[in-house]
Amino acid sequence: MQPTSTMNEEFLKKWQMGLQMFRPSIDNASVSERKRAIKLSADVAMASLRKGTTCWSRALIQKTATEDNFLVRQMLSGIKEETLINKKLPKVMCHRKIVRRSKKILMRRKSRSAMEEVAAKAKKLVKRKTQGLRNVVPGGEFMSNNVLLIQETLDYIVSLQTQVNVMRSIVDAAEAGIER
Amino acid sequence: MDLSGGFGARSGGGVPFREVTALESLHLGGGDEFRRMVPPENAGGFTALLELPPTQAVELLHSSSSSSPSQPTLHSLGTLAFPSNSVLMERAARFSVIATEQHNQNGNVSGETTTTSSVPSNERIKTEPAETETCDQAAVEEQNNRCGGKRKDFDKKVKSSTKKKNKSSEESEKLPYVHVRARRGQATDSHSLAERARREKINARMKLLQELVPGCDKIQGTALVLDEIINHVQSLQRQVEMLSMRLASVNPRIDFNLDTILASENGSLMDGNFNGTAMQLAWPHQVMETEQSYHHRQLQQPPPQQWPFDGLNQPVWGREEDQDLGNDHNSLMVGAANLHPNQVKMEL
C-alpha cells in the first residue's frame, strides 16, 4: 500500500497546525531550533494520522511529549491527548541479561547435533535482526510478538513515506522559490 | 508442462508437488550422491529435479499425476533413470515402506494422503488451498528440521513459490476464527496448531513487507529481508532529518501561507506537466481560496476539499485579494513565501 493523496493532505494540515504554534518565535530562532520545531511537529502530525490505533504512533507521541509537551497537547487537542500522553507504556522490557544467562546455561546442558546447530544459528540471526528492527521502529520494544512487530513496521513505513513525500515537495517548492 | 511454471504455480501442481516433496525427502534422507551432483547453493529438491534432463522430470510429473496416490513414490521413481539409480531406489523403497508403516509419525506421507484422500468438506474453501500448501510446506519444514543441512533454502523456496497461498491465508485471517484442519499424523494439540497459524501470519506479513520495500523481492531468507527493511526504515528517517534541516535553513519570510504553496505544488505534482507561467498565474487563485477557508473555519474541522488537487480552475479574484494577503499572518518559515507577494505583484 502506497501513501494516498488524502493522507498527504491530512499530514500537511496537521503539520501546519503544529508549525503555527511556533509562529511568534520562529523568525528569531536559530537554524537548529527551527529544525527541531519542524521535525517535532512533523512527527506528531504523522503519528496523529493514526489516531492512536497503532503502537508506534502512541510511542512516537509519547516520545515527542517528553521533548515538547505543550506542542503535543495543542496539536492533539480533542483527540484524547490526556490518555495518549500520560498513559504508561504497556510492557516492561524483559531483563535481557538474565534471559541471556539462563539461555547460556540451557545451551550447555543440551546436546548438540550438526543440524540443530545450524538451525539454532539461523534462528539467532533472525532474532538479532528482529531486535534491530525493534530498535528502529518507535515503540518496538513494547510489541510483544513478531506478528505485531511486522504489522507495525508496515504501517510505519507507509506513514514515513507520506511524511517524506510531503516534506520533499515543500522543500523543493521553497528552494525553487528562493532561486527565483 | 512447463517445469518452472509447474513448480511455481499452485493450481495444477498439487500432486506433482507432493512428488517433489517425496523426492526432497529422499534427497534429504541421505542422498549424498545427490548433493554432490547438485551445486552447493541449490540444495533444494526443486532444483535437483531441474538438474535432471527435462524429459525425465516431465515424465516424473506426469507419472505421478497418473499413478494412484497411495503409492506414488515407487511408481514414479521406477520410471526414471537417476544417476545413482539403484541407491536411490533402495532409499525410496525403504522410505516409502517406512512411510506407509508409520502413518502416524511421518508428516510427509501424511501430507500426501490427507490432501489426496477425500476430506470432510471445509466450509472455508479458501483455507483448503492454504492448508494443502502449508501442509506441504510444513512437511518440507519437518523434513528440514529432521534432516538438517542447508534447510533454510528449502523453506524459503517453498515459501516464495506460493503466492496464491498467501492470499488465501490472508483472507482466512480476517474471519473471526480460522478453520485449521489438523493434518493426519500431525500433533493436534492446540500448541502446534496455534504455532502453525502464527507462522503463516508472520509469513503473510513478511510477504507484504517484501512488496513494500523496493528490492526485497529477489532476496531469499528472513534475515536478509529484515536487514533490508531495517535499512529502508533508517534511510527514511534520515531523509526526514535532512529535509527538516533543509527546510529550516531556508530563510524564513513573513506573510506566507503554506497552504497555497503546497496546494499548487501538489497540484503540479498531480497534473504532471506543468507550465511555470501557468503556476505563477494560478497561485493567486489558490491564495484567495485557501485563505478564506482558513479564516472561516475552525482548525479542527478539515476544510472542504476545494483546494487544489483538482487543478487550477479557480473562481475570479479581484480586489479582495490584497486585503486577504494583508490579513494573513500565517508566518511559516518556508522561504517560498517571497514568491507569493512577487507573483501577486506580477499579476497586478
TrEMBL record, chain A:
CDD domains: bHLH_AtIBH1_like. GO terms for biological process: regulation of DNA-templated transcription. InterPro entries: bHLH_AtIBH1-like, IBH1-like, IBH1_N. The keyword Transcription applies. One of its GO terms (cellular component) is nucleus. Pfam families: IBH1_N. It is found in: Nucleus. Keywords: Nucleus, Transcription, Transcription regulation. Its main location: nucleus. Residues 5-66 form the IBH1-like N-terminal domain. This is IBH1-like N-terminal domain-containing protein. It comes from Brassica carinata (Ethiopian mustard).
UniProtKB/TrEMBL annotation, chain B:
The keyword ATP-binding does not apply. One of its GO terms (cellular component) is nucleus. Keywords: Nucleus, Transcription, Transcription regulation. GO terms for molecular function: DNA-binding transcription factor activity; protein dimerization activity. This is BHLH domain-containing protein. CDD domains: bHLH_AtBPE_like (cd18919). Residues 103-175 are annotated as: Disordered. Pfam families: HLH. It comes from the Eukaryota. Residues 103-121 have a biased composition (Polar residues). Residues 186-236 form the BHLH domain. It is found in: Nucleus. InterPro entries: bHLH_dom, bHLH_ZIP_TF, HLH_DNA-bd_sf.
